[in-house]
């Protein structure tokens, strides 16, 4: 799996205004040398996807979205479709983030529909899974991840169309991270599930680690077997941190 090109993806969540273009431009300015070793992706809020994608065109940082409705269009007030994000120049969509699973009660079945919606529009689906603290303490981590993978990943997943992000819920935004050994155990398990279900493609699908990744821990986490990059929340808001994390892979 060492031949898999890493992906460093930033999830800006509900942060960023028009004035954030300067921070994004700083990322573009520093991305050149890093793009030789990793793919870089920034997922700003929907309000900024178009402006960022326009600015990044032909540059070394791709732009993605954070969520989409399963349908392409219709009577769904306030929702946004994968086709709309593709139209703006996005190349990927994060689906199944734990904040959406928690805040909006998203089920595995809905996450799977959203991943299929991303594909329908020609975009890569970044599907997030991960256990809560309670589930980890109860020894259920692999069971939970297995059932989220089974329910959230569409048939026909390929390395071009799918990225899996393992994000322990208790590590998101908390400054806590699992040990390298724990990350390795879960990523090995995920690799096994992907290989079993998607055969040769499963061996190539990128598995990101997410949860309190920062410049000081990125290199260690990125060095773990079957960790093919990172999904970065808080630290992706600052160009210097995001670029330093990418430099660590
Ligand atoms: C995330 O929410 O995807 C995430 C990893 O957040 P943070 O890096 O802030 O923990």
From TrEMBL:
Pathway: Carbohydrate biosynthesis; gluconeogenesis; Carbohydrate metabolism; erythritol degradation; Carbohydrate degradation; glycolysis; D-glyceraldehyde 3-phosphate from glycerone phosphate: step 1/1. The keyword Zinc-finger does not apply. Belongs to the triosephosphate isomerase family. The active site is at residues 97, 167. Homodimer. It comes from Bradyrhizobium jicamae. It is found in: Cytoplasm. Involved in the gluconeogenesis. Catalyzes stereospecifically the conversion of dihydroxyacetone phosphate (DHAP) to D-glyceraldehyde-3-phosphate (G3P). Keywords: Cytoplasm, Gluconeogenesis, Glycolysis, Isomerase. The gene is tpiA. It holds the Pfam family TIM. GO terms for molecular function: triose-phosphate isomerase activity. It catalyses: L-erythrulose 1-phosphate = D-erythrulose 4-phosphate; D-glyceraldehyde 3-phosphate = dihydroxyacetone phosphate. This is Triosephosphate isomerase. Substrate binds at residues 11-13, 173, 212, 233-234. InterPro entries: Aldolase_TIM, TIM_sf, TrioseP_Isoase_bac/euk, Triosephosphate_isomerase, Triosephosphate_isomerase_AS. Its EC number is 5.3.1.1.
